Amino acid sequence: MKAFFSLLGDIRRLAIPYFKSEERWIALGLLGAVIALELAWVYATVLLNEWNSAFYNAIQEKNYAEFKRQLLIFCAIAVCAIAIAVYQIYLKQWLEIRWRRWLTTRYMEHWLADDTHYRLRLSGDPADNPDQRIAQDVNLFVSQTIGVGIGLLGTVVSLASFSVILWGLSGSYDLQLFGTEMVVPGYLFWAALIYAAVGTWLAHLIGRPLVRLNYNQQRYEADFRVDLVRVRENSEQIALLKGEQAEERHLSGRFERIWGNFFDLMRAQKRLTWFTAGYNQISTIFPFVVVSPAYFSGAILLGPLMQTASAFSSVQGSFSFFITSYSTLAEWAAVVNRLTGFEASMAAAKRQAQAPSFVRTPVAASDLPRAMTMDEMDIRLPTDAPIIKVEGVAIVRGEHVLVMGPSGSGKTTLFRAMAGIWPFGSGRLGIEAPSRLMILPQKPYVPVGRLDAALAYPQDPQIHTRDALCAALEAVGLPGLCGRLEESALWPHVLSLGEQQRLSLARALLAQPAILLLDEATAALDEPSEAAVYQLLRHRMPGTTLLSIGHRATLKGLHDRILVLQGEGAPRRLVEAGAPVLAAEA
């Protein structure tokens, strides 16, 4: 019961925000309409139950006129019931898609805000496969919440309506118990209740493992799908390394988990189906077995027999709601658990973002023309192991600084801390115009779609003229792409790594950031092209402060200062290495 009430609380927390959102009036209107149609459907079934008595009495009495009249009544009820069913499905689907759109947008905003998507990865991503949770689990949650919720409401109303009918039809039953005669009023109602209660209890015992198995199945399916996407995106590297067999072994291992869990799911579903199928078959005849003694004794006619059997079936079916819906409920519980876990992980990442380890402040006016200051910075790994210490380092506005150090010493992590996305550590970081800091990684991100959108990313390409976009491409040595700005393609596969790095540099020319961080962003270029690019940045972005990570000795002559990560082991310290002779002065 504790787990059940906890699940109800999770469902409430997931569902209520939509009905309090800016769409609340439309949402509540659609929900009210769907509920009203469900109640109308229950009323139609009550009318059909009453119609059963009159119709079968007319057959037993061979009253043809009444028979025809009852057929006309049936047609009227059936037409109304069909209209109710059609519009209930239509309005339910309308509510589903609006709710799904709102919830999907909310999750996407929270996932992408404050670098949450990145922080989840750094923390080991306890909410595995966010893509599945946003794309699939949200859809399942909305559809199943509406389906189960409306179904449960209809069940409760139907139970109340037909219980009154069944109670009135069943009369009393004389029961001999231990030599004592007892009168049981409404015995048919109690028979239906006991029959359904025993069935529900047995179904729960048999089907309980389905919740865990459905949860695991969704997770294993998502893991397999993500690895297939990874192989597709890295197909060239895999082909060059002849890694197809290794990938096949890995993918086969992933699928083995799906295979094994699915067989467990099959066995659990088989056990539950054995019970539910038998239960449903017995339920078809059970009402007649219970009511038939009264009919054969002459106490009731055929009409009341059919009406009583119909009412009994409705009451028993209402009581058996959890039996017939157990598989759906198990899947629904798994979906709710996955979404609540996703929300908890995003909330934890957001709290981390709101209480950053590094204190980032604008550079004080008294410190200008400094563009960046770093004091008492202690940069650590997620395991809390120290990697870098920075004390009293200042970068002057417009200065070009080269950061060097052994491979794996933490240079990229230092840049992540400067950019504000690395949350592990402490210290003070003063930055001129933090919103105008831009970092270019060694492997650029080139989105799929139109080339002009990829070039201007993350800005809207419409804010730049076509001439400005072409000028940026020509400046970095990609004049051939000017004629393809409106073309949509898989640009990460069309362009070489060197071309992607040039495109990324053109993006910086368009953005004109106050501070530009280059994390080996020219490593794929030859040395003369690299030198030309740095001269271009110095000429076209004279007010931009530039920090570079690189290993080539030729980079030393392209910068004003060199900072080096020194020390054996961790933590390494960022220290001044002296002022090089600029290539232009040599």
Please supply descriptive tags for the structure shown above.
586 residues, alpha/beta, ABC transporter transmembrane region fold, Rossmann fold, 2 domains, 11-stranded mixed β-sheet, 62% helix, disordered C terminus
Describe the structure.
- The protein is α/β, with parallel strands linked by helices and 586 residues long.
- It folds into 2 domains: 101-354, ABC transporter type 1, transmembrane domain (ABC transporter transmembrane region fold); 358-576, Rossmann fold, CATH 3.40.50.300.
- The chain has 18 helices and 15 strands.
- The protein has helices spanning 2-15, 24-60, 64-112, 116-122, 130-170, 187-207, 209-233, 235-240, 244-296, 302-319, 321-324, 326-354, 411-419, 451-456, 466-475, 491-494, 497-511, 527-540; strands at 172-177, 180-185, 358-362, 370-380, 386-390, 393-396, 400-404, 425-431, 437-440, 449-450, 488-489, 515-519, 545-549, 561-566, 572-576.
- The strands form 3 sheets. Strands 3, 4, 5, 6, 7, 8, 9, 12, 13, 14 and 15 form an 11-stranded mixed β-sheet that branches. The protein has a two-stranded antiparallel ribbon with strand order 1-2.
- The protein is elongated and about 110 Å long.
- The model is unreliable at 581-586 (pLDDT under 50).
